[in-house]
UniProtKB/TrEMBL annotation:
Cofactors (names): Mg(2+)
UniProt protein name: Molybdopterin molybdenumtransferase
Group of enzyme by EC: transferase
Lineage: Bacteria, Bacillati, Actinomycetota, Actinomycetes, Propionibacteriales
Organism: Luteococcus peritonei
SMART domains named among the record's database cross-references: MoCF_biosynth
Similarity remark: Belongs to the MoeA family.
Ranges where the MoaB/Mog domain occurs: 186-322
Entry keyword set: Magnesium, Metal-binding, Molybdenum, Molybdenum cofactor biosynthesis, Transferase
PANTHER family hit by this protein: GEPHYRIN, MOLYBDOPTERIN BIOSYNTHESIS PROTEIN
Keyword Amino-acid biosynthesis in record: no
This protein's encoding gene: glp
Amino acid sequence: MEHLAWQRTVEQHREAVLCMVPPPAVVRRALDEALGLVLAVGATAPADLPGTRASAMDGFAVRHADLVQGGTLPVTLDVPAGARPGEGPGPGSAARIMTGAPVPTGADTVVAVEYTDIPRGPVPLPHQVRIHRVPPLGDAIRAAGSDVAAGSVVVAAGSVLDATAISALAATGHAEVSVRPAPRVRVVSTGAELRSPGQPLAAGQLHDSNSFLMAALARSLGHQVDRVSLQHDDAEALTAELPRLLHGTDILVFSGGASAGAFEVVRQALGGRGIGFGHVAMQPGKPQGLGVLDGVPVFCLPGNPVACAVSFLAFVRPWLDAAAGRGGQQHRVQLGQELGGKPGRTRFVGAVLREGRGVPAAARQSHQVTRLAGLDGFLVVPAERESVAAGEELGWLPLP
């Protein structure tokens, strides 16, 4: 089969990418394993939280009618956090109560310990407490269900489970949740010129950075990643390795070997297997490959590091987000200074954020990997624009 050639815009290529997203899957996960995943089924509160009236602070539970400025009340019982709701205090008396403890049935107000002559800390139960300041009726009492009422939604379907959502689910008794699983990612860099970091370099050789770049990007998005470095340009060897590379992953991402040169190992090995190669009207990142092999989506990105980073953010990330159930959020940012260039291709310009505006970094070329450090993302300049004035809004590809 011949290589499938095409010419696409960025939008057309992204649409082709999203057509490869599999049907949504739902799995059950323990809370400890759910961080960063998308909730597939909304979680509701099975009961009121708190389940009973509770004290909002350390102090004394009393009947408000018994309070007198500067008066004293006998203390007849202690109510620690975790105690069962009970009766008391009786008329004309007080109960020492801890934050979060259930307010006894007979009390209607909690007097903060700061309003009394009893110091904080583990002191013996006093015989009486002097009230220096009378709070309003009902003060410092949390009503049952004041956090969340039974049957209310705690975390909505489609929410990304961050630390605060995990906490809310735990507080309402959810040990497991139904989530969209995060796709497993395998990234592969190719090239006979590559050597692993730490190895000495001969003339013409480079340390492999793209596999680390792609792996770090995928991990920062919450995915399990397997990183592979193929330090050769042997199409037959790559063909023999394909079953191993396709096994146990949900997406396979190559960098390098996708252009039209004489030693483009990825294109030579995959072009006859239904993976299409062509050009996307973008700078950097023009040569791209895309398709499905043995049920696994395959992305073939350029080998130049900046082009690899842009391509990952522009195409691989949308697939990962959609497959994981995350919405396709479109980011925009105001341009911090005038930006010029040649129209005809969508341009991705490295930039930093200053006071909320995207400021283009110094001019760079797609091989300058160290220039990626310190960027906040890439400004997206439409293909038809020659120049953009400061203050105009542009698309924004944030670095995670």
